[in-house]
Amino acid sequence: MIVTGNKNHYITGMKNSPALSIATREILSLLAAQLELARRERGMTQTDLAERAGISINTLKSVLQGKPQVAIGTVFEIAAILRVSLYDPRQQSHEKALIDTKLKLLPGRVHRQKAGIDDDF
Q1: Cα 23 to Cα 81: distance, rounded to the nearest angstrom
Q2: Separation between Cα atoms, residue 74 and residue 60, nearest integer Å
Q3: Residue (of 32, 29, 39) closest to 81 by Cα position
Q4: How wide is the angle at C-alpha 106 spanned by C-alphas 103 and 108, nearest 5°?
Q5: Dihedrals φ, ψ of 51, to 5°?
Q6: CA-based torsion, 66, 68, 70, 75: positive or negative
Q7: Which residue has the higher pLDDT, 113 or 31?
Q8: Is 20 helix (H, G, I), strand (E, B) or coil?
Q9: Rounded CA separation 33/19 (Å)
Q10: How far apart are CA 99 and CA 107, in angstroms?
């Protein structure tokens, strides 16, 4: 089932899967394809890659299918093993410093905004 709202489209009703936007599912699919391509180009079997990553073959298959339930650290580790770049390492320290600066300027907590009183009669 596709639900629309706030300019996002969500897919719901999938077994054991959270409601994710279509954009998120497309990104997961793209990343999975990049990892599968890299695995094949490097001539690694799924068994070899799973052993090297320290995960089960079923977990690896979930990653390569773009399933969202896999821990993000596991996906990053597989990308590192296959040398699939997820970011530009030359900008990593600059980005981290920029983010740290912004976080220091923002409040430490975010509170829900209270509904305003509509006293306009």
Answers
A1: 26
A2: 9
A3: 39
A4: 85
A5: -65, -45
A6: positive
A7: 31
A8: strand
A9: 21
A10: 14
User: 24: which 2 tokens?
Assistant: 């998120």
**C-alpha span between 48 and 42 (Å, rounded):** 11
* pLDDT tens string 62-80: 999 999 999 999 999 999 9
Residue 91: what are its φ and ψ, rounded to 5°?
A: -105, 0
Give the 3-state DSSP-derived string for 30-58, with helices as H, strands as E and coil as C.
HHHHHHHHHHHHCCCCHHHHHHHHCCCHH
Give the β-pairing of 8-11 and 2-5.
Answer: antiparallel
What pTM value is reported for the model? 0.69
Q: In what order do the strands lie in the sheet with 20-21?
A: 2-5, 8-11, 20-21
